[in-house]
Amino acid sequence: MIPLNFYLILAAALFCIGLFGALARRNAIGILIGIELMLNAVNINLVAFWRYIKPAGATMDLAGQIFALFVITLAAAEAAIGLALVIAIYRSRDTVNVEDVNLMKW
Amino acid sequence: MPDAQTLTLISPELLLSIFGLLILLVDVIWREKSQSALPWLAILGFALALAATLYIWGSNISLFAGMYMVDMFSLFFKVVASLAGILITLVSIDYLRQRTPYRGEFFAIFTFSILAMMLVASSASLLMIYLSIEFLSYTSYLLTGFLREDKKSNEAAIKYFLYGAVTSAVMLYGLSLLYGVTGSLNLTDIAAAFSATVDSTVRMIALVSTMLVLAGLGFKISLVPFHQWAPDAYEGAPTPVTAFLSVGPKAVGFAALLRVALTALPQWVLPAPPPAPVKEIPLVLAVVSIITMTLGNLIALRQTNVKRLLAYSSIAQAGYMLIGVVAVNLTGNSPFSGLNGILIYLFAYLFTNLGAFICVIAIENATGIVEIPEYAGLVKRAPLVAALFVIFFLSLAGIPPTVGFIGKFFVFGAALREGWLYLAAIGVINSVISVFYYFAVVRQAFFEAPKDATPIRLAPLVTLSLVVSAALVLAFAIYPQPLLNLAAWSMGMVK
Amino acid sequence: MDLIVFYLFATLAVIAALGVVALRNPVHAALCLAVVFISLAALYVLLSAPFVAAAQVMIYAGAILILFVFVIMLLSPGVDQGAGALKWQRPLAAVFGLALAVELILVLASAVLPAARGQYTPERLAQIGDVQAIGALLFTDFLLPFEITSLLLLVAMVGVIVLAKKRVRS
Questions:
Q1: What is the ipTM of this complex?
Q2: A106 domain residue, yes or no
Q3: Residues of C in contact with A13 (CB under 8 A)
Q4: Mean predicted lDDT score pLDDT of chain C
Q5: What is the pTM of this model?
């Protein structure tokens, strides 16, 4: 049996890589991709905890998995909204780089 | 299938869902003919939700396997949310008419964002907290970018979105760790798991995950260092949406913060035996509070755009409110428990800030002016707006006889009671600084000569909502007892 | 055996994730993201969560990724240039990311979490860990979040159409 910590460390690594991506990119789509990595890291945590941790009470039997499913669903909605905003901004000024988006102080 | 009692208890939420869907439907079926009726449909929805909230007033029950609390604390926020919904819809009607053809979609999404506020206030499970906060965020992003032909609106929305999505992912990581160390999503089970453990690793993880969750909520509340989105989003968003952004997410962020702090981490605020997991957090919050109010006020001094000025002022206000969270202590029967201070302050801030934004909208609608130098001589052009600006700014600065003073009184009082002397002192100094920039606007409006002396005509609906919010600000200052009772009852959520 | 599978897919996921943030061409980054999604799906199978694995492949790899690729193709944003106005941004992000990684990994590596031995027996997993059990829970204990999600998706859809559709209704 693989120790729980292995999964947690993998998740932490992916989360930090994703966070780095989100902070270091200047391209809105690149930032969004970084955010997707972070959300995936959270899902590893949730499913691994579900598998290894004693649930507190009967209704929590599958809580980790169900939480992960909700995260996946919301990630889809979030990506759709983000990309729609990217398209709208591209239409109005022909760029997706956040540094070019500077009508107001950034 | 939930039973009739459950349905009654969630009737405000059900009503808003139904009216949101109804607006979409009516808009699709009747198109042009229905345009002027849609905002009134939304207002009817908010009014009915308000009535339903008052009908179930006094309930204290947990629903849906413990993930949804209908208690006085959440009902307080539901009252605030529906009132804010009515006021903002009233001022959006004229604002949107010239600016977007998608008014039906706007009012539907706005109705759902008020619904999301109500959901956050009642959430008592990590899943529900995440879901409803994200619901509110998504609707806010959409509303911010709603003027799709307007470059500033686009820019505001994408900045708001990118900040929000990163911080909510960070918060979510913290929530997953909280689930991991306790094995439950329900806040009460989490509290039980924490008080049962003496393990220092669990304590460590609890601390790390609480910090991560604070990052997400700090973004909603616009605490430094998660505040950078606020000025840009406030400036670029359609002004009624800015008014909403300055009150909705903030109220909800505090609701979630208090719910998590008081239910899941009671050792944070109650005297606990030695293995208390999270004692460091109030200290961190105190530092954040000091930086937030000082930075917000200092930058606000230099602003020339009134929307940006109010953005920085609202960042500073978040700092004052955080003092109440730092000083929460629910033992004993003191009137300065911190919690009631925050609730009173939030109530005061919401209607004061809404009022200030309605003033801005009134001027912007009629003339397009948002720069403070152009406010010169406002008293001659629109005496009512100029006079009400004074009232709202007095209240924001915390000067009697306004409701803002009562809020500051209870928040700073709680800090003194808990021995946070320097925190209260810095709060008072900051309030004094804030007077300078508030009165820079007032000085322009009253003592400068107008460049263009034509009177500004106000739309009747805008005048109505101005008068309503000013009346709330003054009435609760002169007769605060209902507000104090309300806040006292809301504390019933903590056993 | 389990351990080999874990190492294989975990390494793959981390390398692909590094590719996602390191590669300048957005199409390449998106392709790396697909590798991450699929390796994680394999790990979910290893964790005996086949439904989450399936959802991961269908929604992440099937829907979200396609959406990304569509937008990238549509806008052809070009290559993300290295140096720019925000020179401090990259090192600062690296410092933040590394600091957080070290902190999290130290904490998590030392963690002795309650019952960290895999609490479910194969029989128990067969009994609860399938689609039926998840479906039943979604419509009973998790009914409220489930319904809220449906509203949320509707709102997101309406809003996205308003923002992204081509011609404005006059």
A1: 0.93
A2: no
A3: 14, 17, 101, 105
A4: 82
A5: 0.92
